[in-house]
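Worked Example 4.2. Consider the chain below.
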Amino acid sequence: MSIFTEEFNILELYTKQMNIYGDTGNSQILKKRMELYSLRSNILHYNIGDVFPTKVDIIVSGGGQDSSQMRVAEDLLSIKDHLKLHALNSTPMLVVCGMYQLFGNYFETSTGEKISGLSILDAHTVAQDKRLIGNVIASSNTFGTLVGYENHSGQTTLGAKATALAEQVSLGYGNDATSQTEGIIYKNVIGTYLHGPVLSKNPKLADYLINCAVTKRMGYEVQLTSNSVAKLDELVEQARKVAQKLRR
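Applying the procedure from the previous section yields the following structure tokens:
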């Protein structure tokens, strides 16, 4: 039985434009895991021109082609204040690839055009000729081994005080071709280049987002447990072991 009378709202940004490599699957994974933890949830959608919802517990968004990224960039600035307030108030967020870039200070295209970002994450991205494509394995002090798939031409530089999601990439590139870091974490906001969808292979990330949402709702940390989740994660771990044997 759930300890909550109200449902949690998972908000998916730009479902129509930013959904490459199945990134919208992250919302479905969160919803299913919350169900297994006896938490009820809804998936809400925000697309260009929509009204930003008033009650949001988790925010997720995926990657897209450069053309899609350009289309959402202007609209994204119109909801900048909503997203900044949520970030400051510790609403958990997961932003992948193109949206990760737009949550930074700016994205510079291959033609030199600078697209203003939200400046929620202390990072900036510059498009390069070389695309970084393939499977990724990265080590995080907080989340352990992360696995996923990257495909991006933008290379992201973290600010001097920014914290990487994963401190060491052992397979693939991550943020750029040289730093050997992957992603970023600020308050409860996670930015990453990992597709997959990333939460399917990294349940610790999913549980982090869920726990943050529950803690914020309750005002104190709640220990979530579920035998069904434990059994599911045994299977996930088998899949993760296979994924870690794959080449680029």
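Residues 17 and 67 are 9 Å apart (CA to CA). The domain at 8-243 is CATH 3.40.50.880 (Rossmann fold). Compare this with Example 4.1 before moving on.
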